[in-house]
Design a protein that fits this description.
The protein is built from 13 helices and 22 strands. The chain has 461 residues and is α/β, with parallel strands linked by helices. It has 3 domains: 214 residues, FAD/NAD(P)-binding domain; 107 residues, FAD/NAD(P)-binding domain; 113 residues, FAD/NAD-linked reductase, C-terminal dimerisation domain (Enolase-like, domain 1, 2-Layer Sandwich). Strands 1, 2, 3, 4, 5, 6 and 17 form a 7-stranded mixed β-sheet that branches. A 5-stranded parallel β-sheet has the order 8-15-9-10-11. Strand 1, helix 1 and strand 2 form a beta-alpha-beta unit. It is globular, with a radius of gyration of 23 Å.
Length: 461
């Protein structure tokens, strides 16, 4: 018997969609090539990188930051193998958890590489070469993305590699060059800088964190520079290759950079190759993404796509929202994704979080706006934590006061941004947020004060 729904990909988009579909009564199967569910995000992306960020931050604080709290330690040593094992244990526990959720909800797990043989039919080939044809009334493509590269870069998977390799270096590099100053490059660059590497970040643009609010990005660069990251902005990489056992990066009009390892972090590419899409007639855009409508339907009836293989930010939580919405549409219900309130977080120290419009976008569109800024250094909880770097910025419409964007640079910004997302989802004004009581002393008071500041009424600055 065919399935009601066959999902290709067991990452955040696919496994969440599978669980929700099963809850809605659809006979659901999910195909994943890797032995572990969770996709890039859980196996070699979001989760392991955050585990390494946490461990490296504790290591750095033990060496340089605890004395101010009156905690004096003896010589602190790095056990990299144990740190990496903890990271793997975190990943392993969570991937097994998804297996358990599949069993609990009655989702059929199929392991192997999925390839279309025509509309509505997919062949799943296992690692041993055994193949089975699976049919379904609806097929959802959620195959995620893979790291991108640049012309002239010779990735060998060792000295020159991607984020996958950078999560498992067997020794701390003496000199690590990071190509790309986006989220991935800054996070993993921070990890190895804390563990003792000299880190040089090479970026083509004249700024870090492209797409993020410029004021916050510039301030973040200053703070990261104080932590030892060296930034070479406006550098066009021409090549990166192994020469005499070293990784050599050459940039246009610049001296070569010789490093022990190179991390290539220049973005990600949709996984739409080798899926047999040509047998279905599913239409792709010029960037290799699958064209979909507002209900995630492709150009072929009964075929859908979500997550990194379609337009929009390549974020796990965006993909999860699309997965839920898509299967709710399939089940005859109402699905919804508010793309204006999808937050982004860079988990450096301090964290950088953002939702909605940046100042640059508002200026470009001619939207009148008010701006409220409040600094961490004026917050009591921040002083108690010893985390006084950073600020929060709220942008609201100059006429309606509706919150248009919120940007936070500082401790726990990734958690604080959730309040802003909820507020914007309910079309709140800065006045609405300002009038909500926030517990004292908490970092959340920073958002309240920033909301007050849009009208010149901040109480503690």
């Amino acid at each position: 018997m065919p399935f009601d729904l066959l999902i290709l990909g067991g990452g955040p988009a696919g496994y969440v969609a599978a669980i929700r579909a099963a809850q809605l009564g659809l006979k659901t199967a999910c195909v994943e090539r890797e032995p572990a569910l969770g996709g890039t995000c859980l196996r070699v992306g979001c989760i392991p990188s955050k585990a390494m960020l946490e461990s490296s931050e504790i290591f750095s604080a033990s060496r340089h930051g605890l004395e101010r709290h009156g905690v004096v330690l003896g010589p602190v040593q790095l056990d990299l193998a144990r740190m990496l094992k903890r990271k793997d244990d975190v990943v392993g526990g969570l991937t097994r958890g998804i297996d358990g959720l599949f069993r609990k909800n009655g989702v059929t797990r199929l392991q192997g590489h999925a390839r279309f043989t025509g509309p509505g039919a997919v062949t799943v080939t296992s690692s041993t070469g055994e193949a089975q044809t699976v049919t379904a009334n609806h097929i959802l493509i959620a195959t995620g993305s893979r790291p991108s590269s640049l012309p002239g870069i010779e990735i060998d998977g060792s000295l020159i590699g991607t984020s996958t390799e950078a999560l498992s270096y067997d020794a701390v590099p003496g000199h690590l060059v990071v190509i790309g100053a986006g989220y991935i490059g800054l996070e993993l660059g921070s990890v190895w800088a804390r563990l003792g590497s000299k880190v040089t970040v090479v970026e083509y643009l004249d700024r870090i964190l492209p797409g993020m609010d410029r004021e916050m990005a510039d301030e973040a660069q200053k703070l990261l520079s104080k932590q030892g990251l060296e930034f070479r902005l406006g550098h066009k990489v021409q090549s990166a290759r192994i020469e005499d056992g070293k990784a050599v990066v050459r940039c246009e009009g610049r001296d070569p950079i010789v490093a022990d390892r190179v991390l290539v972090a220049v973005g990600r590419t949709p996984n739409t190759l080798d899926l047999g899409l040509d047998t279905t007639g599913i239409r792709l855009d010029p960037r290799g993404r699958i064209d979909v409508d507002d209900r995630f339907r492709t150009s072929i009836p009964g075929h859908y796509a979500i997550g990194d293989v379609i337009r929009g930010a390549m974020l796990a939580h965006k993909a999860e929202e699309e997965g839920v919405a898509c299967v709710e549409f399939i089940a005859g219900k109402h699905g919804h994704v508010d793309y204006d309130t999808i937050p982004g977080v860079c988990y450096t120290h301090p964290e950088i979080a953002s939702v909605g419009k940046t100042e640059e976008q508002l200026k470009e569109s001619g939207t009148p706006y008010k701006k409220g800024v409040f600094h961490y250094r004026a917050n009591g909880r921040a002083h108690a934590l010893g985390e006084t770097d950073g600020r929060a910025k709220i942008l609201s419409h100059a006429e309606t006061d509706r919150i248009l964007g919120v940007h936070i640079l500082g401790a726990r910004a990734g958690d604080l941004i959730a309040e802003a997302v909820v507020a914007m989802s309910f079309h709140a004004s800065a006045e609405d947020l300002a009038r909500c009581s926030h517990a004292h002393p908490t970092l959340a008071e920073i958002l309240k004060e920033a909301a007050l500041a849009t009208d010149g009424r901040a109480l503690h600055s």
